Amino acid sequence: MTRQRLAIPFLVLTLTLVSSILLRAGGSAEPAATGSKAAAIERGKYLVNFGSCNDCHTPWKLGPKGPEPDMTRALTGHPAEMKVSPSPTLEGSWGIAAANTMTAWTGPWGVSFTANLTPDRETGLGDWTEEMFIQTMRTGRHQGKGRAILPPMPWFSVNALSDEDIKAVFAYLQSLPPVHNRVPAPIDPPEGQ
Ligand code: HEC
Fold it and tell me: Is pLDDT larger for residue 145 or for residue 34?
């Protein structure tokens, strides 16, 4: 009699405990998934800062302490409205020059303009897949299969990263606000050079 009376509250207590454990496990599945995405974005941000992507993909301006990347235009690439003057004649030891913005470069390959890395669908990386991004850094070709990527894009340095880290860089870039900025196509070097 006493044993039976005790058994019922014990059963209720056990069921409550079990269900609360199950609920907690089920409830945490969602935040854990978003948590790992947030961690990848955070890791990507760290790698982008270390990898100097802002040095070339963010237009520089003259600040109070001298030239610096204009972070209000972070990673938007060469500004579409900026028309570059003809390349300077470089002589002797000098073979490469950069525009004031650090977003246009001239050298034996002609003139290259840094890409818009924000996720704008028309002018940035908005329609890129993670696989395209990895293959670009692995092969040095546009989207992993197109034309050869021109200097001074250090794709071979990014190639040293693991797939996981390149994915993190991509996740961070895709988390930026999309900015519409159509970067010009590269200019070939003059004939005979
Ligand atoms: C020294 C300057 C420089 C640095 C640093 C740099 N880039 Fe670039 N990047 C360029 C230039 C120039 C281009 C355009 C090359 C071309 O048109 O072939 C480019 C193009 C790209 C492209 C487009 C490639 C394609 O397939 O069209 C991606 C993506 C890219 N860079 C990502 C990055 C990332 C991520 C970083 C940081 C880890 C980075 N870049 C650092 C200069 C740079």
Answer: 145
